[in-house]
Amino acid sequence: MAKMRAFVATDSKAKPELMKVDIPQIKDYEVLVEVAAASINPVDQMYRLMQKGMQIKTSYPFILGNDFSGTIVALGKMVKKYQIGDKVYGRIKGTDSGTFAEYVAVDSQVIAPIPQNMSLTDATAVPLVGLTAYQALFDRLDLQKGQKIFINAGSGGVGSMAIQLAKAKGAYVATTVSPRNIDLVKRLGADEIIDYHQEDFSEILKDYDAVFDTHGQKDTIKSLKILKSHGKVVTIAGMPEIDFARERKLNLVRRVLFKIVSRPIIEQAKSKDISYRFFLMEPDGQQLRKLTTLIENKQLEPLIDRIFTFDKIEEALAYSKKGHNVGKVIVKIK
Length: 334
Ligand SMILES: NC(=O)c1ccc[n+]([C@@H]2O[C@H](COP(=O)([O-])OP(=O)(O)OC[C@H]3O[C@@H](n4cnc5c(N)ncnc54)[C@H](OP(=O)(O)O)[C@@H]3O)[C@@H](O)[C@H]2O)c1
What we know:
- The chain is 28% helix and 28% strand.
- The chain is an alpha/beta fold and 334 residues long.
- It folds into two domains: 3-126 and 302-332, Medium-chain alcohol dehydrogenases, catalytic domain (Quinone Oxidoreductase, Chain A, domain 1, Alpha-Beta Complex); 129-278, NAD(P)-binding Rossmann-like Domain (Rossmann fold, 3-Layer(aba) Sandwich).
- The strands form three sheets. Strands 3, 5, 6, 7, 8, 15 and 16 form a seven-stranded mixed sheet that branches. Strands 11-10-9-12-13-14 form a six-stranded parallel sheet, with helices on both faces.
- The mean pLDDT is 94.
- Residues 41-43, 129, 132, 152-153, 155-159, 176-178, 181, 196, 214-216, 236-237, 280-281, 323-326 line the site of NADP nicotinamide-adenine-dinucleotide phosphate.
């Protein structure tokens, strides 16, 4: 069997490492992609197994990595939309093989052609953060033109995409950043910019329709203060709650746990007629095509912080783990 280089988690204690493994076999509905680049997301730091439904692998060994861009080199029997040689990108499904590898076998439903005005390397900065921002703003918050939204951590991978998508919709956007990133988020279109080192957003913003919380911690509960009655908070980094556990069909232990840990915020939200939801993004090829169009129309541009080579993947992960990257950290595989 032909081999490839991949960054593999072998068990919960050992550090993942670069090793030779079999090139994955494709199923009828999958394509095999020769990976050009992969981008790093905070979820890639988690190589300990998680419960089914949390979208993270459930048995060892597994290849890390979720985002990829590359060239199709083989097609499953049922794949009609793509051809060998197509340049594509995507965020894999939990059941697909990982993207920190020379090849990835991926469900053809979750991929899309890369934007024509982008290199393969840069394109890998888009899928996971772009889809997360899109789903939060439009599927979860139902953001409308003219509404006021607060998106924290505006210089992060998700935050920077969300600011641009909200502006393309015609919303009024407030965000938090460090002083060095003020000009950057201004260029992305943010209307109100708060230096989070100096000021507390919850003392400044008032009467907002929506909050997209991409940072979590104390920001999540504080964000209730800035919303109108019937406002909405959607978090990707705050406390999961019981509806999330039900939606993901998590077991009873998780349901009870999430109910207990989210009680303070749920009670505060209810008392102010605010809705509070945690969600996990879903891979989605159709929505990724919409992002491709926005990028080709120059309404959306991913921010790229640094590009590492595959040999330096551990350095790339360590750099990203510090959490002060501006946009995406990319690993060039080919
Ligand atoms: N639930 C889901 O489906 C889902 C999907 C994607 C991501 N996530 C989660 O969402 C979070 C964000 O992901 P990401 O990929 O956007 O992360 P990221 O790119 O690593 O975010 C880093 C950015 O956060 C900024 N930041 C750090 N502390 C801040 C603070 N107190 N206030 C404002 N900005 C701050 C940093 O700016 P400075 O350098 O200026 O501090 C940096 O630019 C992570 O926790 C991730 O796990 C969840």
